[in-house]
Amino acid sequence: MKNIMVSLSKRQSINQIPTEMVERKGTGHPDTICDAASEELSRALSRYYLEHYGRIYHHNVDKAVLVGGRVEVEFGGGRLLEPIYLLIVGRATMELMSGKKIERIPVGSLTLDSTQQWIKNNMRFLDPSKHIVVDSKIRSGSIDLQAVFDESEMAPLANDTSFGTAFAPLTETEQLVLETERLLNSKQFKQKLPEVGEDIKVMASRLENEIRLTIAVAMIASLIPDKDHYRNIHEEVRNQVADLVVKTTPKNVSIDINTGDNPEKDSYYLTLTGTSAEHGDDGQVGRGNRTTGLITPYRPQSLEAACGKNPINHTGKLLNVAAQIIAKRIDAEIHPIEANVYLLSQIGQPITEPQLANVELILENEAQFNVAKNDVEAIIEEELDSLPSLWEGILNDYYTLF
Amino acid sequence: MKNIMVSLSKRQSINQIPTEMVERKGTGHPDTICDAASEELSRALSRYYLEHYGRIYHHNVDKAVLVGGRVEVEFGGGRLLEPIYLLIVGRATMELMSGKKIERIPVGSLTLDSTQQWIKNNMRFLDPSKHIVVDSKIRSGSIDLQAVFDESEMAPLANDTSFGTAFAPLTETEQLVLETERLLNSKQFKQKLPEVGEDIKVMASRLENEIRLTIAVAMIASLIPDKDHYRNIHEEVRNQVADLVVKTTPKNVSIDINTGDNPEKDSYYLTLTGTSAEHGDDGQVGRGNRTTGLITPYRPQSLEAACGKNPINHTGKLLNVAAQIIAKRIDAEIHPIEANVYLLSQIGQPITEPQLANVELILENEAQFNVAKNDVEAIIEEELDSLPSLWEGILNDYYTLF
Amino acid sequence: MKNIMVSLSKRQSINQIPTEMVERKGTGHPDTICDAASEELSRALSRYYLEHYGRIYHHNVDKAVLVGGRVEVEFGGGRLLEPIYLLIVGRATMELMSGKKIERIPVGSLTLDSTQQWIKNNMRFLDPSKHIVVDSKIRSGSIDLQAVFDESEMAPLANDTSFGTAFAPLTETEQLVLETERLLNSKQFKQKLPEVGEDIKVMASRLENEIRLTIAVAMIASLIPDKDHYRNIHEEVRNQVADLVVKTTPKNVSIDINTGDNPEKDSYYLTLTGTSAEHGDDGQVGRGNRTTGLITPYRPQSLEAACGKNPINHTGKLLNVAAQIIAKRIDAEIHPIEANVYLLSQIGQPITEPQLANVELILENEAQFNVAKNDVEAIIEEELDSLPSLWEGILNDYYTLF
Amino acid sequence: MKNIMVSLSKRQSINQIPTEMVERKGTGHPDTICDAASEELSRALSRYYLEHYGRIYHHNVDKAVLVGGRVEVEFGGGRLLEPIYLLIVGRATMELMSGKKIERIPVGSLTLDSTQQWIKNNMRFLDPSKHIVVDSKIRSGSIDLQAVFDESEMAPLANDTSFGTAFAPLTETEQLVLETERLLNSKQFKQKLPEVGEDIKVMASRLENEIRLTIAVAMIASLIPDKDHYRNIHEEVRNQVADLVVKTTPKNVSIDINTGDNPEKDSYYLTLTGTSAEHGDDGQVGRGNRTTGLITPYRPQSLEAACGKNPINHTGKLLNVAAQIIAKRIDAEIHPIEANVYLLSQIGQPITEPQLANVELILENEAQFNVAKNDVEAIIEEELDSLPSLWEGILNDYYTLF
């Protein structure tokens, strides 16, 4: 019982409508740091359970709050006044029986290690032992949910009724937003322009054929001795993005970088650590990018936080990842103008049997719908059937979660 | 420069497409409690600033995390093992000059009082001094943002580039979800059926003319002596919702209540306090309902948390409320089949001058578009111009925020 | 093997030496609040274990830290800016087997309740739900210590090597300090002079026959409309203490009250809640009065915190209470000029078998020593033998712990 | 007005009485870690204020609580389950005017850095970024106290009425306790026997000429592969201490090491990090050694925590250090059998003018008292006059604080 429904949409595709709005919060954004910390902990727990007990046990660590620190920065450097504080919250299986022995899972230690490791790997100037205090309140799991979780030999049972959504292909505006951030946070780019910090927020609005791209880039104060240097970096970022624009879209694109700067007041977007979390910007899990990597109000969007949920039966995570996989396969195999994927789980039922699995297609040639419908149904069915092993790809980092 | 764009959409209305998915998290849901706590604090701060200094000062308290408690419940009652822990996070103006005297704002005290007051007013069985520990980490605001905030004599300047979205009218499915929760959490209903707790989650999926309504209702254990009583309440809730269904839609509606229950295992959705936060369910701000009161993946959705942001220049709040007002006025005055509103602010520019203000209309008679366009433009313009006084309506609780 | 040693001291009694210094921190002092919160929690746990399982289980909650709040006060009233924050720390047995069922102990709930109850009973103007946030970090106990704890059918085994000390009788200076605080915090006194808050610190120094009594009294701002009223209360307190002085000692006693006041700067010791914890004064467990009720640098003193330790095998608690009992009995039965009691436990040995139990006696007539020695040895032996049931008296509040 | 009182004591010296009890908590004891963290923060703040503003500003960080972690250890190694949590609490001057500019003091950053640095310098196996979460709640100081603090051009005014005590010379028992810990925690010893961790607690009781020395030594599990190795280390520690005993005292000394061990149950005092804080042992400031480096119930003892208080006007710190200096000078210059020093400050009066400064002397030849008295008075006067510059020696680590 998969309740699959493939429908032909007669509406205009998003490319045909005159407006679009798209956003991406980059690696170092406070919300992204929360997403990453939650997800890294879920993976660390999953790997630990797997390695020691052969299966992944119940956990849900999809809540965290980051309290921004306080710094003083100026051209040439700065100093930390108050460290960032990150509180990771959730549930986990804390104890397991091994034979007749109760064994304890090192949840607190995994939390600290996984967060620090992610920061080390992703934030060049944020020192995980100096700039951030990582605290946690993780309690042992609710017994009821563990029951749902444990009894399955077959497909796990959905922990909740929740949505998963996705769409494909990306519009040029969407591509531009995604790739701008990916470019500016790429290793190659950082080697060329190390002055560019990791907290990069890209926003685009399209009005007909005019795209306005607004980029906020946290600059690394210690690498920028003065205004001239800042202006050069600013210009260089613009040039690099302009190159990307040319490759991505024929539309007219205006590029605004750090529009909050106010040279008259000597106010520039300088940071010590590469993230605005260092000074007053707080964060939370699930408030940033969807599993598409984007925030897209003109597009189907689930409000579920994919990060931090367990990859076995938490449909708020699984269905968003699966929707993304389905959308991409439909795009690659069927080439519709647009495909929108909507999945809805049913609590207590196998995750492979959603309450509703709907794909809307916009096709160039509507006559193809009957054929396409069959193909899409097959893709959905296949991917739903694969849900019980989706955790492997998640642990191997095959999918974008934020 | 309001960058208004009214467009005629040729797509099917949501009523014409074969599927829909809609959700509402009720008053007592852990995410809703976080939303409410943040918003109540913002209002308490706003009122305090107004009363003492004649204007609202910078604050942003749009982050909070709730760590679920632990209880033991059974038919007839239960007991708290571990209280809920709620940490409210943000920034506020902590000190102000009055003449030559520095005066301190009682931020900590307002936090505790406003949260406890909301709980007292909204949760009959959650004792704010016994069942929940309310903590806070609210630091003084970032100086840069305060600058943006303070300098305006005219319209305040947008604090960020952020989205506001809304749509109207509601579909029958959407109405049903919204009104089901409103009914079950109404005073009259609680008088009749006090056994029904405040944590009510309503989810609907529509497939053509079939609506499946899934309702999770936290029952009050102390008022329910046994299974029979539980079954009766369960049945009575179904009946009441069935009555509502009849008034709301001619479609076929199946009603599932507490599908997570497992009578064979004697497992029922019983609570001590009326919220799942008491046992293992954590929460955050901005993870629940949009300013429409709903979660609607088939509809335009902003990911901004409206709650807790200041009502003066935080466009993540203002534009979502304004979009809602605009959508409702268009619905009432123009009667389109559908109106979708998308607003996008520009950081550092007056809040009255967004980067883009787009309304998509679906009209029965497309010939009316030119007239409608003018009317809608006028509505948008009027409401954007009213943004600098929108805070008054927010403080007076005229608008739904979650 | 009790290792009892009764010795005759040839030194001058404390009354003969020319100087003395004595202090008592009253009910509302931040350190006393911490002591009380820890001890109340230990008792609540003990009662819970007893009631449900017939015996007291391992716990140790002898650490807490209080972070002072912030207020604004003036004659006639005041307001809270930031609540007090109290973090109670320790270990407790969290789960117990009842038949084949694991049962959970409501540690978090007991913590909140017992602290709030103590505040309600002891602090008239400190509202436990408005003025203080009570948080806790109580983890499940160390397995090793539980082992020591659990295996005893006979006398419990000492958890540590630790000291207990006491002395008797009190000097006049000591009596004066103790009774001054007891008087000012008595119910009768509060009825007459409700303006006198609970945070009362009494300090005395004696130089030959001159005693200087320094009293700091937190006054209740809301009950004191102006300076005149304050002065009257100040005078009334002095008069009452002067009456007590006359009854207690023929020595010359000067009385200084609120010497920190600075009328020229309009600075008075006014409080909203009756405790300096409301504004900047932090606290901890074990930093205030010993089990004598006093701080007495000229006298034997243990540094162990008696509060919060479990009353079964924590010798840091038991030996201090027992030393006090022994000293009082010796005083009542033998009438020495002075008796000093020193007990030292041996980790892992029965609590009834200390490493050393020493009493020093100063006698008027040294010839009586041999008789006295036998009597004292008997008293010590008896009281050591009673240690396994000392918890009953502790739970029934027979003994001063702070 | 120094209120100096030198008195001749006719009592027996501590060496003449038949019993003694002495304790020292070593470097790695949870209470000592709290003492160190508080004191290091006070010094870091003091240095910062001095360097940037030429004087030390008000602060008081003499409260902290450590929540023990959780580990699993066995011969050969172990692993951390839950990190230690350390909360440092207090007051500090957070902002200062430099010209017309408000400058912020990096209190949070200094807290983290100074604690981590101390750990690195003192605990070989406790990784400050992996094994411990260092949090803080440090608020800006009470305005009233700052007033007392700021107005002095002359000697600072005492912040409180508080005691300082000391004595000299040390008895052999005291020396033995102090030096045993100092030996086992010396660099040379760690090079020879790295297996010996830093958490060393030494307790001695003397009965006539028999001293019983009880030593608890946290062993480093990773360096001890098996029981045999443990036994060898155990034996080697005993031998080294036995050598020390021979040099220190002719009395009979029994040495008990890790008496909590239970070989039958395979229970040994093994640690991952060298401190019992890793597993269940909590800590606080001011609960360990006095400024003598010892806990000595038979001796004068102040209950003030010297650590963390500011070194300018906090008499709870200054008078304890000064008492220690005075006692040592008297010992060196006058050679009494015993000298006991008691100082008591008067709140609001210059720190150089205590309420009472008493020294009790026990002299071999009482005829010398008159001469000695004059000398001692001169020493007291000199040292009291030096109090306003005592902070320099404290910052330079000339004095033992714990």
List keywords for this structure.
homotetramer; alpha/beta; 9 helices; 4-stranded mixed sheet; 402 residues
Instruction: Describe the sheet with the most strands of chain A.
Output: 5 strands, mixed
Straight-line N-to-C gap of chain A: 30 Å
Which oligomeric state applies? Answer: homotetramer
Number of strands of chain A: 17
Structural class of chain A: alpha/beta
**Residue share in helices of chain A?**
25-40%
User: What is the overall silhouette of chain A?
Assistant: flat
Strand content of chain A: 25-35%
Q: Measured on Cα atoms, how large is the radius of gyration of chain A?
A: 22 Å
What are the secondary-structure elements of chain A, in order, as H or E? EEHEEEEEEHEHEHHEEHEEEHEEHH
Mean pLDDT across every amino acid position of chain A: 94
Helical segment count of chain A: 9
User: Which protein chains make the most extensive interface, counting residues with beta carbons within 8 Å of the other chain's beta carbons?
Assistant: C-D, 78 and 78 residues
The residue ranges of chain A in which pLDDT falls below 50 over 5 or more consecutive positions are: 143-149
What does this structure look like?
The structure is a homotetramer of 402-residue chains. Chain A has helices spanning 30-53, 107-122, 143-150, 172-184, 187-192, 227-248, 315-334, 369-386, 390-395; strands at 4-8, 19-25, 59-67, 70-74, 77-82, 84-92, 95-98, 101-104, 132-140, 163-168, 196-207, 210-220, 252-257, 270-271, 283-284, 338-344, 356-362. With 402 residues, the first copy, chain A, is α/β, with parallel strands linked by helices. In chain A, helix 1 crosses helix 2. In chain A, strands 2, 11, 12, 13 and 14 form a five-stranded mixed β-sheet that branches. Chain A has a four-stranded mixed β-sheet with strand order 1-17-16-10, with helices on one face. Chain A has a four-stranded mixed β-sheet with strand order 9-6-3-15, covered by helices on one side. In chain A, a hairpin with a 2-residue loop joins strand 4 and strand 5. The model of chain A is unreliable at 143-149 (pLDDT under 50). Chains in contact: A-B, A-D, B-C, C-D.
